[in-house]
């Protein structure tokens, strides 16, 4: 048999097997929770079926108990997280001047579908600027820098799509932060 015909046959066999397994693990509403959450995330919304399938098989699903740290302020960041279920709180530790004590400031509360920590995908040895911890039983999708490199290597088109969206997200968040700093400066002058 010609190798191109064999490759075509193997592709269709794999597709049929994948279809059968996908149907076994669908939720009651017929969705595939992991793939659907990935597709909903702005970083991955431009990926086609094949690219999403690759991504789905690369990412890491992790479970966290209430109060368990996802990462801590000052640690080296290795990747980002998408909340599949549950919720995550983000806090910043502030050391008080002339003392050895610190206080924790609540920054935000994130819920299912939200993502955080994406700056770690582009920084080299960058430190986490905040602490993230599970507010309740939570399931998170971890997408780490080695995962991004693997996608870029295995499917450069998917890697470019992700990086372009990542640049868009980081630019938007930088503009929002700049606007907020400007507002705070105006308020402090009044």
Describe the structure.
The chain has 190 residues and is of the alpha+beta class. The protein contains 5 helices and 8 strands, in the order αααββββββββαα. It has helices at 3-24, 33-40, 49-56, 145-154, 156-189; strands at residues 60-64, 69-71, 79-85, 87-95, 102-111, 115-116, 131-134, 138-144. The strands form 2 sheets. Strands 1-8-3-6 form a 4-stranded antiparallel sheet. Strands 2-7-4-5 form a 4-stranded antiparallel sheet, with no helix packed on it. A hairpin with a 6-residue loop joins strand 4 (87-95) and strand 5. Helix 2 packs across helix 3 (49-56) and helix 4 packs antiparallel against helix 5 (156-189).
Summarize this structure briefly.
The protein is an alpha+beta fold and 190 residues long. Helix content is 43%, strand content 25%.
Shape, principal axes of CA atoms: globular
Number-wise, the strands total 8
Total domains: 2
H-E order: HHHEEEEEEEEHH
CATH topology of the largest domain: Jelly Rolls
The level of helicity is: 40-55%
Share in β-strands? 15-25%
Count of DSSP H/I helices:
5
Mind describing the biggest β-sheet? 4 strands, antiparallel
Q: N- to C-terminal separation? A: 80 Å
| The top level CATH class name of the largest domain | Mainly Beta
Radius of gyration: 20 Å
């Amino acid at each position: 048999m010609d190798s191109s015909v064999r490759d075509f046959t193997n592709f269709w066999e794999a597709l049929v097997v994948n279809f059968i397994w996908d149907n076994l693990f669908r939720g009651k509403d017929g969705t595939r929770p992991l793939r659907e959450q990935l597709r909903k995330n702005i970083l991955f919304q431009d990926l086609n079926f094949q690219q999403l399938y690759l991504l789905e098989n690369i990412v890491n699903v992790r479970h966290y108990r209430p109060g368990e740290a996802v990462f801590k302020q000052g640690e080296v960041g290795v990747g980002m997280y998408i909340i599949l279920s549950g919720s995550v709180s983000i806090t910043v530790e502030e050391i008080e001047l002339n003392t050895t004590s610190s206080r924790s400031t609540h920054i935000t509360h994130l819920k299912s579908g939200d993502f955080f920590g994406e700056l770690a995908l582009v920084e080299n040895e960058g430190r986490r600027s905040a602490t993230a911890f599970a507010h309740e039983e939570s399931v998170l999708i971890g997408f780490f820098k080695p995962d991004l490199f693997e996608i870029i290597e295995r499917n450069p088109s998917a890697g470019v799509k992700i990086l372009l969206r990542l640049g868009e997200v980081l630019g938007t968040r930088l503009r929002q932060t700049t606007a907020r700093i400007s507002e705070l400066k105006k308020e402090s002058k009044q």
